[in-house]
Amino acid sequence: MAKQTLFILGDSTSMTIGAERCMYPFVMADRSCWPESTEIVNCSQPGFTSADACAFFFRHRAEFPSLRAVVIHLGTCDAASWEVRRGRYSHARQSMIRLKEAAGVKRERTRLKNRLLPFEWNGAFDPAIEAPEKPEDYEYNLSRIVGACASASVAVVLIRPKANPQFLPGAGKGNFSFYRYLGIGDRLSGRLSIPEGRFLEALRFHESGDRERAAAAYREILLQSGRLASHFEFPLIVVNNYAVCAAEKGDLDEAEALFNLLLKERGARREIILYNLARLHRMRGDEERSRRLLRESLDTDSSMYRIRTPYLEAIDRIAARLDGKAHVVDMASFIEDELYVDHTHPLPEGQERIAGRVIDHLKGCGLAGDRTAEIRNLLYNPELALGNSTEFFAYFRTYAPFSENEIAAHRDALRKAVDGSAQKADSVRQGLPAEIRAALDYHLTHPCFPELRFLLPFGPRYPSDVGRFPEYFLIRHLIPCLRSVEADPDLKNRFTVPGLLRSSEELRAMLPAQIASLVESGEPAVDPALEAQRLAAILESCRTKLPAHLRKGNQVYERMKTTIAWYFRETLRFGSHSRISMRYDRVPLERIAEALAVAMLLDKRLAAGRHGEIRDLVGILEETVQTHEQYSRRFTEGDHSAGLLEEYDGRLSAIADRLERN
User: Fold this and answer.
1) The pLDDT value given to residue 640
2) In 3D, which of 172, 99, 87 has the Cα closest to residue 138?
3) Is residue 63 within 8 Å of 142, Cβ to Cβ?
4) Chain-centre distance for alpha carbon 208
5) How far apart are alpha carbons 57 and 77 in whole angstroms?
6) Which of 399, 436, 398, 435 is closest to 414 using CA atoms?
7) Mean pLDDT throughout 121-126?
8) Closest Cα partner for 622 from 601, 657, 592?
9) Which residue intervals of the chain bear CATH 1.25.40?
């Protein structure tokens, strides 16, 4: 039977990458409701705009004569400012790109001037060179796709996106990390770098709750010029933080007056000021005005990936013109604000709801049956509309520019040096290419590889091991170990918290197909002399890293404020949906679980007799994760009481105390 093809044109709101099959396209595919041989072709990825999706559609539609339906979930990235504007993907541009490709002319990746430096003062950030896509261009691009589908009798489902209005505005561009947000108790001063030392002192007072000294320190900065006095944004940040401090002390009138003055200042981050005003009016008990200001803050905010009103209105106009020929799924009608942890990706419950609505519409178009569907990702990059047809993993530099032989030569030279003196090893390591040196530093953060002498026998070996995502080497190495654990009746059930120790198949799902093919088959080799030392080092590393994690306390607000800094990389592991574990730094905990699984395997192979110690560490780790999940869920479900996070910190500290006593 010929395949029945469904296109999904989206951004990160529809992306199907990572171990957790929670995104609505996965949910759709896994339901037994499709005709036989249904294939979902998904081009969705972070950064994709309507122009990029339009380019994808007209590039590939002829390859799929059995195209039956198109799901469009776009606008989140169109509404965010960017240096590279894609504009309209017109017929003329489409023809020009084809001519250039036929002539062998390739478009190079754009070099961006504005860099994301989430913890570093960026005096060079220039907001004037960034802008969102124009709503009229967004409407034009969607109309081209929808019009072509209507002419070919291809069903269209237009998802009318929703953004989380409660999320922190402005937290995706520029110097956002130096602003205080009213009601957000982040503790970032220890990680921030800024030429004005007095500012960090004021911030430390503020974070510790000493608002009188914080306010005095902010006033001193304003009254006595310092190193950043001439930078237009710095005094605005100081006034904002002082106003937040005043509001927290109960001086609401003074704070409101200052926020209103800031709104009139040239270059002010209006989205942040409006958010703070919204929070202030909530403190006053004026919920209606608070909601209006939050909406205004969202519609002013082009730094975050959140759809805004002009783009929603464009969808409404398209739907009205089609007069029922396109089905509209309005997320605002069934996705509550509480179904978000991040800025725009609903929790799994919300993903289930979206999948159900889309499937209902497609059933009405004749796409119904009793089979599951396949998903195939066909990914490019966020410059496809400009003629850059580089594949996703090549664009994002997954593969370093070295051959296997070159990597082997560098690795072998380093192995010889490691077997000699520490001074020689350090000298050789410093002489390595920057990509390889950075990858090794990353690999050594995993407790499975506490030292170079335990890492180098296994790799790196391939360009993907030392590319932009060096975690692919770690995953590739761990899969055979976990297969062995899963096959051993004595080891396979040692972890009881679901999802903490990923299965070998879940880890494989994190890898691109080209890298998954590099995973070794069979049992992992064990060098008894080396692995006995490695086992001891792994357990010591876990005993060091777990208390350090616990002593940091809760991470709710820090994680919220720095979402854009970690979201993309974590998407490659978890998937792009919101999840409760976004409230805490889960990755190092899963790494400790992986290291303990390797330790269990080595302990049994070597008959080392350390299974009791490993069992105790697994218990502490699982208690840590359960504590994070319990309090993070309570917070997400609306418990923002003053004592919740203090209680949370107390539980984490008690676990650390117990671990350190053992």
Assistant:
1) 80
2) 87
3) no
4) 29
5) 17
6) 436
7) 94
8) 592
9) 176-300
Largest CA distance in the chain: 77
Q: Where are the beta strands (DSSP E) in 522-586?
A: none
- Whether the per-residue pLDDT at 461 is higher than 70: the answer is yes
Indicate the helix (H) or strand (E) that contains 71: strand 67-73
Contact criterion met (CB below 8 Å) for 158 and 315: yes
Q: How far apart (Å, rounded) are the C-alpha atoms in residues 268 and 356? A: 42
In angstroms, how far is CA 362 from the centroid of its own chain? 30
Task: State the CB neighbour count (10 A cutoff) for residue 44.
Answer: 27
pLDDT tens for 359-395 read: 999 998 888 999 999 999 999 999 999 999 999 999 9
- How does DSSP assign 206-264, residue by residue? HHHT-HHHHHHHHHHHHHS--TTTTSTHHHHHHHHHHHHHHHHHT-HHHHHHHHHHHHT
User: In whole angstroms, what separates CA 335 from the centre of its chain?
Assistant: 21
Which positions ≥6 away from 493 have C-beta within 8 Å?
A: none
CATH class of this structure's domain 176-300:
mainly alpha
Query: What's the distance, CA 185 to chain centroid?
Result: 21
CB 79 within 8 A of CB 302: yes
Task: Give CA separation, 625 vs 496, 620, 632, in Å.
Answer: 11, 9, 10
Distance of CA 475 to the CA centre of its chain: 18
User: Where does the chain hold its CATH 3.40.50.1110 domain(s)?
Assistant: 4-166+305-393
DSSP 445-460: TSTT-SSHHHHTTT--
pLDDT at 324 exceeding the cut of 80: no
d(CA 420, CA 431): 16
Helix (H, G, I), strand (E, B) or coil at 159: strand
Cα dihedral sign, 405-411-417-420 = negative
Predicted TM-score of the model (pTM): 0.94
Provide the pLDDT for residue 1. Answer: 59
Q: Give the per-residue pLDDT at 3.
A: 85
Taking residues 626-639, report their average pLDDT: 95
- Residue 227: which pLDDT band, with cuts at 50, 70 and 90? confident
Is residue 130 a contact partner of residue 81, using CB atoms and an 8 Å limit?
yes
Query: What is the distance between the alpha carbons of residues 26 and 31, in angstroms, rounded to a whole number?
Result: 9
Local confidence band at 662 (pLDDT 50, 70, 90 cut-offs): confident
Q: What are the structure tokens assigned to 83, written together? A: 């240096």
Pair 304, 272: CB distance under 8 Å: no
Q: Which two tokens stand for residue 544?
A: 């060091």
Q: How far is CA 256 from CA 195, 207, 284, 431, in A?
A: 29, 21, 11, 56
Nearest C-alpha neighbor of 583 from the set 634, 535, 548, 545: 634
Domain 4-166+305-393 has CATH 3.60.20.30: no
Q: How many CB atoms lie within 10 A of CB 581?
A: 22
The helix (run of H) or strand (run of E) holding residue 556 is helix 556-561
- Using CA atoms, how far apart are residues 403 and 408, in angstroms rounded to an integer? 9
- Distances in whole angstroms, Cα of residue 500 to Cα of each of 17, 494, 587, 595: 19, 11, 10, 12
Structure tokens at 476: 């590739």
Residue 14 CA to residue 17 CA, distance in Å, equals 10
Q: What is the pLDDT of residues 6-50, one digit of tens each?
A: 999 999 999 999 999 999 999 999 999 999 999 999 999 999 999
Q: Calculate the CA 137 to chain-centre distance.
A: 27
Cis previous bond, 447, omega within 30: no
Average per-residue pLDDT for the chain: 95
Task: Using a pLDDT cut of 70, give the percent of the chain over it.
Answer: 100
479: confidence class by pLDDT, cuts 50, 70, 90: very high
Q: Do 30 and 365 contact (CB within 8 A), yes or no?
A: no
